[in-house]
Major facilitator superfamily (MFS) profile domain-containing protein
Amino acid sequence: MRPRPVSSTRLAVSFITALIVANVSGPQYIYPAFGASLTTRFGWSALENSLVSTAPFVGVSFSGPLCAFMIERLGKRKTMLISAFLCFSGSFLLAQSYIGRLSHNVILCAFYLICTGIGGSASYLCALDSQAQNFKSHRGMSMGLTSASVGLCGLVFSQINDFFFINKENPNDNRIYGFLIFMAITMASGMILGSFFLVVQDQEEDEVDDVKPKNNHSNDISRVVIQSETSPLLQTKSTSLSGLKFFLHPAGFALFFTMFIVLGFGYVYLAGIGQMLMSLSQDPTVGSQHLRNIHVSIFSIGNCVSRALFGTLSDFLKRRFHIHRLWIFWSASLAFLLTTNFLVRSVDSADDLLFGTIMMAIVYGAVFGVAPASTAEFGTQVFVRNWGWLLYSPAFGSQIFNILFGILYDAQAKRQGAQFCKGAVCFQNTFLIGNVLGVACLFVLGWAIANQRSKKYLSVSTST
């Protein structure tokens, strides 16, 4: 019996709902709006702050397989309700710690943020999966827009924080408690909404089998073009690839490595923007929260636009010119290399950091905007599983590089004999390491692209 198709109206409602769900599923992008206030209030060191600041991102990334398991076993509705509970509980408990009703122990605060990260990851994965299943012919655009929506999360919440939760007469009176309560209620409400309106268009076959030659006598070139258009990362007859085989595939490994480096350092930049601004500011106590909100907003806008733009662009390039999505990653890695070089050599003041924020946001958004569509090309039926495991790469990257950032920052502060490090030297060594790893990224992606090209030529020769 064939499944009954979902109406176009319900698909449209589901599409809009997915964007709303994604927009409240990014606690890792909201954290910079209030993270520095936690550090100041609790007196954390740079290393302790680095551990806490990566907690939401660790929750988002390391919970990938768990979230995939919940979606496959419990379904989207129950998973969304669990997500709402986790996000509300984590933010609410953190708010109680902020005003002293609960302990502000570093481990506890990190645990609360990890809970919000897990909830955000599960709800975002539900939104992405619904888009991957419903809009296969425009996968790059639909998933890119959904990815852009979660990137816009930081802008929305940082601006709300700036307008409603900062005392204009006393900028240092941040009213973070009220903001955390607002964050808890808003995130939970958006996820509960998604539990009712997210739907999936049933498909009997994967996209790899959707496009077939109409003429049995098609020439060799047309067969290669059809194969390239349907699944450019897979040159076999298999409709899906997951598990260890996914990571051993050159394109799968290149995706993992690129996300490890670029997204890892990208989140280090976002999470550490408060400390970097304090290091470059003449008086870090005057209007620092407003300045952080500006940079978080700029990062969110650049991240959002980049995700939507490059997600859609990857569709256009693949369909019109048969260009692998891997070329988007290669270009983003080149931009990452140039950005880290700028941060090492050309930043002397807080004003100089603005260009670094814009460039890092574009690079970060490009990778995160195209990665879901690239992952789905290994099979939409295993997309949730593959994406869940793939999220380990930025999780490891952000944790490792953020700890590195904290260690180098504290070491430089000790050399200066002060609690807070001053000058661009506080973070230059971290991004110098990123600069070197950016070169490695280009080589790995170049190898993967060359491998894909050689397999395409091989498929032509074997069919003649």
Notes: The longest helix spans residues 425-463. The chain has a mean pLDDT of 82. The chain has one domain: 8-202+235-463.
